[in-house]
Amino acid sequence: MNTKELFQALEFAHYAERFRDKVFVIAFPKDIPFQALLLDIKVLVGYHIKVVLVVPDPEFKLEEIIATSNKRGTRLQLSLVTDALYHPDGGEPGIDLDRIGRVLAGGKSQVIAYHTDTPVPGPVEVTYSLAAEVALRLKAHKLFLIGRAAAELEG
User: Fold this and answer.
1) What pTM did the predictor assign?
2) Which pLDDT score, from 0 to 100, does residue 118 have?
3) pLDDT score at 87
4) Which phi-psi region, left, alpha or beta, contains residue 77 (left: φ > 0; alpha: ψ -120 to 50)?
5) Distance between CA 112 and CA 54 in Å, rounded?
6) Considering Cα of 72, then 43, then 137, then 122, what sign does the dihedral take?
7) Which of 63, 130, 137, 147 has its CA 20 to 30 A from that of 34?
C-alpha cells in the first residue's frame, strides 16, 4: 500500500466513524442506474451508516432488482409510495417514519420507490423533492442528490 492509498483508507475510516449511526438520505433520479451504486451503499451500511434511498420506479422493476441484490447480501427493504406523493392542499407524502426507523434499526437500508402519474409543477425533480421531505422528517444527517439535475440546482 502506498502513502496515497494509506491516507485515503485513514480518511475513509475517520469519515465512517464520524457518521456512525447517522442517517443518510440519497436520491437517485431516473437517469442513474440504481444497481451502479449498490456496492457503495453496502460499504456505508457496513460502517453502520443508516441509508435511505429515494428512487423512481416507473416500470415497477425495483422489487426484482432488490430481491437479487439481497441474495448477494445487500439487505434492502422496499417501500412503494404512489400518488400520495404530493397533495394540492400541502399535505405530506405517505411515508411511515416508524417503519423506516425499525428497518434502519434492524441493520437494513430503506428504499423508498415511487411511481406517480401526477405531474408535479416546479423546477425541482420529484425524486429530489421527495428525498428532501424524507430527510427533513427523519432528521437525516446528510442528504445526497445524485445526478446532473442536482448539479444544476447548485449552480
Assistant:
1) 0.82
2) 61
3) 47
4) beta
5) 5
6) negative
7) 137
